[in-house]
Amino acid sequence: MDIFIVGGSGRVGLELAKELSDKHHNVIVGSRSPEKIDADGFKTVKLDLTQSASEVAEAIGQVDLVYFTAGSRGKDLLQIDAFGAVKTMLAAEKNNIKRYIMLSAYESLNPDAWEEKPYSDLKEYYQAKYLADKYLMDSTKLDWTILQAVALEEEEGNGKGDHATEQSVAIPDVGLTLAELAEQDNTIGKVVTISNGDKDITSLFKDA
Q1: Domain NAD(P)-binding spans what residues (predicted)?
Q2: How far apart are CA 78 and CA 153, in angstroms?
Q3: Which of 59, 86, 112, 166 has the smallest C-beta neighbourhood within 10 Å, fewest atoms?
Q4: Which of 97, 96, 78, 76 is nearest to 86 (CA)?
């Protein structure tokens, strides 16, 4: 498949690019600073989510699948995490791309949960993710999957996971999970979760 990763210079995005390349997909990584990416096995293009949806569509081009893994780390939640994501959805539809996979956060669609820690410390982030996720679900005709990850940890992955039974998840295992979703059409139109665990990620979503 031809696959475009939005936010491919981030921690998860790079792991995803490596996993997809290992699976012999044609991977294109979009980043505001593509020159800073050590691109081994995939292509890079300049993508600025503050630009118009038409410019975003031009950068993405014709592919089979779009991933959204971008994040501003709280620096520009409206322009990047919320409306930036929406522009990539508009771009996908403009380019007649059907498959779209969103990396989101556990409890992003449950505002009641944000009143308590640890979510209350990141309430504005969850608000941005909620807006993006709801737009994807309710206002597009894309074949979407939303992966809600628990707290990301920079630790070595082991290819194992579970459905949000733990409070953290290794970043490499999130990348692996996203890559597996590309081949799991049974997750289209579904919200799925990932955390550390003891189940094989390659088979975790076969019965989603």
Answers
A1: 7-183
A2: 24
A3: 112
A4: 78
List the 143-149 sheet strands across, edge first: 43-46, 26-31, 2-6, 65-68, 99-105, 143-149, 190-200, 160-162
Which residues lie below 8 Å from residue 192, measured CB to CB, with a gap of 6+? 145, 146, 147, 148, 163, 181, 205, 208
The residues that bridge with 99 in the sheet, in sequence order, are 65, 143
Which pLDDT tens digit goes with each residue over 48-74? Answer: 999 999 999 999 999 999 999 998 888
CA atoms within 13 A on the CB side of 29: 31
Is the pLDDT at 34 greater than 90? The verdict is no
- Kindly state the average pLDDT of the residues 184-207: 93
- How many whole angstroms from its chain centre is CA 33? 18
Query: How far is residue 17's CA from residue 22's CA, in Å, rounded to a whole number?
Result: 9
Long-range contacts of 184-190 (CB under 8 A, 24+ apart): 184/145, 184/208, 185/143, 187/145, 188/99, 188/143, 188/144, 188/145, 189/143, 189/144, 189/145, 190/145, 190/146
Residue 122 token pair: 């990141």
The DSSP code for 113 is G
Cα 112 to Cα 108, 115, 119, 125, 208, distances in angstroms: 10, 6, 10, 14, 25
